[in-house]
């Protein structure tokens, strides 16, 4: 029996848009100056920050500058009446786009959707990363190596790397995975958050890249390929028609979806 559920916190009248890479700005409301209390679960600390870029609300997932830059925090309180010395306050620099609206299907440890608007990569990355600084430069290099998804020995990684990657896979550290046509993308969370990119044609994987600093194949890539293999098998078994219709899928770890798209909200709807 095929099971699906709908989750909605965004308006119904969404326009059809192709998936775009990069960081999106989720807020459309005019910024409203405030001093906000932000709780950081990784540090078990709540600190005050100045905000002049967003219209923030309790429950919003944000990133800040200063010593806790790069850590996710949850807004717990918003104060609009204040007088502060700006030099004494760090600022909110980004807010995650946690508005999710669409249909998901059960796929083992993950939920999967075949709608590009439901949870595109450009939205998912805002849950894990602040935007890239304008002065940061990146360089990409690729060889012509390829392997088949049903035989990961072709990745030519060591047993140690494969073992660590398998552990990441079983711990559901592949938080997000999508394939749009032939282009694939995954978010793998370990000690830090890394992005994996690849090309997938007829079960052949090429152009496999990870944003970590390892040379050659890494545990993040291996974990992503294991999750891709599992998800593709589930889709072929249960949801082949949905996938053929859109030539797209996105899979999100169940815990990740609930932690970021549902926790912290005071209203909304959920249908199972």
Radius of gyration: 20 Å
The 3D shape can be described as globular
Oligomeric state of shown chains? single chain
Average pLDDT, all residues: 88
One letter per element, helices H and strands E, the order comes to EEEEEEEEHEHEEEEHHEHE
- Structural class determined from secondary elements: alpha+beta
Number of helices: 5
Task: Flag low-confidence runs.
Answer: 8-21
Q: Outline the biggest β-sheet.
A: 10 strands, antiparallel
Got a strand count?
15
Bin the helical content: 10-25%
Strand content: 25-35%
With strands numbered from the N-terminus, the spatial order across the biggest sheet is 9-13-12-11-10-14-8-7-1-15
Ends apart, CA distance between termini: 14 Å
Could you walk me through the main structural features you see in this protein, from its secondary elements to its overall organization?
- The protein has 272 residues and is an alpha+beta fold.
- The protein has helices at residues 121-124, 159-170, 219-238, 240-246, 254-262; strands spanning 4-8, 34-40, 45-51, 61-64, 73-79, 92-95, 101-107, 110-113, 146-148, 174-180, 183-189, 193-201, 204-210, 248-253, 269-271.
- The strands form 2 sheets. A 10-stranded antiparallel beta sheet has the order 9-13-12-11-10-14-8-7-1-15. Strands 3-2-5-4-6 form a 5-stranded antiparallel beta sheet, with no helix packed on it.
- Strand 11 and strand 12 (193-201) form a beta hairpin.
- Helix 2 (159-170) packs across helix 3.
- It is globular and about 60 Å long.
């Amino acid at each position: 029996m095929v099971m699906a559920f709908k989750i909605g916190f965004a308006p119904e009248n969404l326009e059809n848009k192709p998936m775009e890479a990069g960081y999106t700005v989720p807020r459309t409301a005019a910024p409203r100056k405030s001093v906000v209390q932000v709780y950081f679960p990784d540090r078990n600390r709540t600190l005050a920050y100045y905000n002049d870029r967003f219209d923030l609300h309790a429950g919003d997932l944000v990133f800040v500058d200063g010593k806790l830059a790069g850590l996710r925090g949850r807004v717990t309180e918003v104060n609009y009446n204040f007088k502060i010395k700006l030099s004494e306050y760090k600022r909110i620099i980004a807010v995650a786009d946690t508005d999710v609206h669409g249909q998901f299907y059960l796929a083992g440890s993950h939920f999967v959707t075949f709608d590009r608007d439901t949870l595109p990569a450009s939205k998912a990355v805002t849950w894990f990363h602040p935007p890239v600084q304008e002065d940061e430069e990146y360089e990409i290099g690729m060889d012509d190596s390829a392997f088949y998804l049903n035989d990961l020995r072709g990745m030519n990684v060591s047993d140690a790397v494969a073992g660590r990657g398998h552990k990441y896979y079983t711990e559901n550290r592949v938080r997000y995975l999508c394939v749009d046509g032939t282009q694939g993308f995954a978010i793998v969370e370990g000690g830090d958050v890394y992005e994996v990119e690849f090309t997938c044609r007829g079960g052949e994987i090429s152009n496999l890249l990870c944003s970590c600093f390892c040379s050659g194949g890494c545990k993040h890539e291996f974990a992503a390929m294991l999750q891709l293999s599992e998800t593709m098998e589930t889709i072929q078994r249960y949801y082949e028609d949905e996938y053929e219709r859109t030539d797209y899928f996105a899979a999100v770890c169940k815990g990740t979806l609930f932690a970021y798209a549902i926790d912290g909200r005071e209203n909304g709807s959920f249908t199972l």
